[in-house]
Amino acid sequence: MRLTILVSSFFILLNDLCGQANLVPNPSFEYYSSCPINPGDILMAEPWVDPTLATSDYFNICNGSVVGVPTNLGGNQVAHTGVGYAGFDTYITPGSYREYVQVKLNDTLIIGKRYCVNFYVSLSDTEQYAVDRIGAYISTNAITCGPPGFGCILNYIPQIENPVFNILANDSGWSKISGSFIASGGELYLTIGNFYDNSNTNLAIVHSSSPYSASYYYIDDVSLVEIAPCISGQSVSICPLDSIQLGTSAVTEVNYSWLPAAGLSDANISNPIAHPSVTTTYTLTQTQCDVISTATVTITVRDDCNIPPTLVIPTTLKSDQMFIIQGLEPNSKLEIFDMWGRKVFVSENYQNDFGGYDIAAGIYVVRFTKADGEMVKQKLCVVK
Asked: What is the DSSP string of 236-262?
């Protein structure tokens, strides 16, 4: 138990360091107080519970039987991440039996803040139906239902839910359910399942040979995070040839797009390096859950900077071409050698461009030495 708490605390800290903190403890059902043995052992995946006192399941690779991973009572499915996940019934006929998973969040939600909820579900292989109504309800207190309570339908309207008529029929992989909501303030519990009765649940037969008139799903990787602010960075002025980093650190499951892309190291990350040739206003579009936000930043390229010394040496020089030399300090030197190592041209305190008409056609080596001792060498073909 102590080990589980320490490991969970470490991952909470890691989330804080890497970006927006996931407020869901044990989000991918990796950690347990004891390895699950039987169906209905959701309590082993602390602190998850089933609020209707039903038999929601916990699966982990530590058990190779009916509650193992990947093979178990629901069929065969690898975890979305890690080696564990949970499972629950979302529909059964006749009757109105339901199973849910519920967890107490790491912190209360802040009034007026917008939050993103993500989780992944996968249809089991062993029951007939796939359904559309799976959602998440976030509440101030733990929700349940009155006596007898066992397997009852929780009559609440979820803030986040899979779209109506979008049948979740994927039984070979995982389907993402995602959405955002504005907190009323003080919410502390997250409950996931089907909050609708049979008449308001749309379904499709996926496994017609199954004898079970029900629908069962695995669930993994549950997150609830505050929507990240869209940060493009501060508008600044730079000199030509300089660069600057835009934006801020990336947040998990957030998509970034910058326009224009010209002058950026990567237009699809949170913090690209900008090297614009002219003054440019960049627009960042950030997508998280169903929330799209934008921010702009202007990088002004100054025209009053001292241009650093540069030398452009072409590989071929015609008689009407020149070396381009800018802003060189005194005490620089230009030397040209032929292929036998004989110096055919030299200029001390070189400050001007050099024309190809000064030497005969042939192959040469150019050596330019700046005042600080830095040396540039390159072969040169002079063509008449």
From this structure: EEE-TT--EE-S----TTEEEEEE--T
Cβ atoms of 114 and 230 within 8 Å: the answer is no
Residue 256 CA to residue 130 CA, distance in Å, equals: 34
Place of tokens 């629901």: 74
Q: Are 225 and 22 in contact (CB under 8 A)?
A: yes
Task: Decide: 79 and 58 in contact? Cβ < 8 Å.
Answer: no
How do residues 293-311 score in pLDDT, each as one tens digit? 999 999 999 988 866 556 6
- Tokens for 155, please give them: 């009559």
SS3 content of the chain, % helix, strand, coil (to 5): 5, 40, 55
- Name the β-bridge partners of 184: none
SS3 state of residue 274? strand
At 259, list the tokens: 């326009």
Cis? peptide before 272, omega within 30° of 0? no
Question: By C-alpha distance, which of 121, 33, 31, 37 is closest to 79?
Answer: 121
- pTM for the model stands at 0.74
Residue range 203-248, pLDDT digits in tens: 999 999 999 999 999 999 999 999 999 999 999 999 988 899 999 9
What span, in angstroms and rounded, lies between the C-alpha atoms of 67 and 82? 15
Residue 244 sits at φ, ψ, to 5 deg, of: -150, 150
What is the amino acid identity at position 114? R
Q: Is the dihedral of CA 13, 19, 25, 29 positive or negative?
A: negative
End-to-end Cα, the chain, rounded Å: 85
Beta bridge partners of 299: 236, 280
* Residue 300 one-letter amino acid: T
How many C-beta atoms lie closer than 10 Å to residue 173's C-beta?
Answer: 11
3-class DSSP string for 117-138: EEEEEEECCCCCEEECCCEEEE
Give 381's strand partners.
Answer: 316, 363
In angstroms, the Cα distances linking 109 to 26, 112, 115, 277 are 18, 9, 9, 45
